[in-house]
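Bug #77: duplicate submission created two jobs. Keeping one. Sequence:
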Amino acid sequence: QVQLVESGGGLVQAGGSLRLSCAASGSIFSINAMGWYRQAPGQQRELVAAITSTGSTNVATSVKGRFTISRDNAKNTVYLQMNTLKPEDTAVYYCNARIMIYTTLHWDDYWGQGTQVTVSS
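Kept job's structure:
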C-alpha cells in the first residue's frame, strides 16, 4: 500500500554534488520520519540522515557539514543534498520512511529500492 520512489543518483567526480529525492505514496495516514541509509560493497547498511515530520534531524558524523536533509511534508518527499562528495560516499542509497497506514495502529518501516551513487577520485 506504500511505495517509495527514489531518484537523483549517478556518477560524479570527487568534490561534486548530487541531490537525492524520495517520494512516498499510497494509503498513508501519517509519516513519522523519513531518511536515507547507504550500503557500500562489503559494508553494513548505515544511517546517513533522517528527519522527522516536525523537522528534527539526525545526521551521520561522516557526512555532517557536507550533506543536508530536508523534507516537503505536503508532498511526502524527502531530499538529500550531497555536496563535496568523496569516494568513500560511494554506495547504494536507500530511502526509508516510518509510516502509519489507514488500516493499522502502529508504525512500519518502508524502503525504497535504492539508487546508486558513485564518486570517482
